[in-house]
Design goal:
By secondary structure, the chain is of the alpha/beta class. The protein has 2 domains: 6-140, Rossmann fold (3-Layer(aba) Sandwich); 155-333, 3-Layer(aba) Sandwich (Rossmann fold). It has 12 helices and 11 strands. The longest helix is centred in the N-terminal third of the chain and has 14 residues, at 64-77. It starts with 5 loop residues before the first strand and ends with a helix.
Length: 334
């Protein structure tokens, strides 16, 4: 094909998946520096891409009606190339309104991932999602390997984080650790009581301070039930502000969640707890130096995204992940 002048990349959700597309954007801008690159996503994730210097426009929508209006706009723009990293019914609609555009999409590996979930004992894993997205570029003759995702922070987000840190910790601790006890699905949450006990161990070192990051949807105490001069609480903060806060942290302790990917994308290593999900499904931390904490029990993974209720008598996947074990991993990473 001729060198594309207008490129549209589509990934509507969710937080971690949108973050993991960023190496694709970077590589497109390197290989087609004169091209206009637009990114289509849901409004709630727009800040992940809107400050990226490689992206001309972040095109966003909230519902089907707004998506319909966007389709009219896309029909008028006439993109040379559409890269579909979502593969759903909206992807089909994009194809219908852009019949002359070249379209490439990534392989979702549905069958392999379903086999892993249905038979956890099977010796099978899929490639990391970053690599799966990046593989679509092979069809454009791009053969380089992806680097970890990198989020571009706005000046406002950087200023917010710097003020938040200075206001919360006037004595300037040498080490800030993020605790992220939430997740989109309840089953993926290592009990917040255990996060609280890990926090207590980390605070034994007077040079450590903690930022507890969560949202109201996580339905847990915003401060994990702790009151301490070296604990700050970040609750229901805009995504890019959270990213900027994470960039000030040496390590983040997370569940398998969007914040795991967000921390990695600002250069912060994570200790990530996996229970009902598994790194074998392609969603492990992408930043070197990060650590996966998992029991690898017989019944895990039991779902792709942790959305299914546990069917066992006890939650074996979390049962033997010990508080001291987790705390020691974080301290060693420091």
């Amino acid at each position: 094909m001729k060198t594309p002048a207008k490129i549209l990349v589509f990934r509507q959700s969710s937080l971690g998946d949108v973050i993991l597309t960023l190496p694709v954007i970077k590589e497109l801008s390197l290989n087609f520096p004169e091209a206009d690159i637009d990114f289509l996503t849901k409004k709630k994730y727009s800040s992940i891409v809107e400050f990226n210097p490689a992206i001309r426009n972040a095109i966003t929508f909230g519902d089907n009606a707004e998506f319909g209006e966007i389709l009219k706009r896309i029909r008028r723009v006439k993109y040379d190339l559409i890269i579909d990293l979502q593969k759903n019914f909206r992807s089909l609609a994009l194809s219908l309104v852009s019949p002359r555009s070249r379209k490439i999409g990534y392989k979702k590996r549905r069958l392999a991932r379903e086999m892993i979930v249905r038979k956890p004992s099977i010796n099978l894993s899929v490639d990391h999602t970053v690599n799966a997205y990046f593989h679509t570029l092979r069809r454009l003759g791009i053969k380089s390997e992806p680097s970890p995702p990198e989020i571009a922070l706005s000046a406002d987000a950087k200023e917010f984080a710097e003020k938040y840190i200075s206001d919360s910790f006037p004595h300037s601790p040498s080490t800030i650790i993020a605790l992220c006890p939430g997740a989109k699905h309840y089953e993926k949450k290592w009990p917040h009581e255990k996060f609280r006990e890990v926090a207590g161990i980390l605070l034994e070192d007077e040079t450590n301070a903690l930022v507890i990051i969560s949202s109201a949807a996580d339905t847990l105490p915003e401060n994990l039930g702790l009151s301490h001069s070296r604990i700050a609480v970040a609750r229901d903060i805009e995504i890019l502000h959270v990213a900027a806060l994470l960039s000030h942290c040496r390590v983040a302790l997370t569940n398998d969640s969007g914040l795991m990917h967000l921390a990695n994308a600002v250069g912060t290593r994570v200790a990530a707890i996996f229970g009902p999900t598994s790194p074998r499904l392609g969603f492990s931390p992408s930043l070197p130096g990060s650590v996966i904490i998992s029991n690898n029990v017989f019944c895990s993974p039991c779902s792709l995204h942790g959305e299914r209720p546990c069917q066992q008598q006890r939650k074996y996947c979390f049962e033997n992940i010990e508080i001291r074990q987790v705390a020691d991993i974080v301290l060693k990473m420091l």
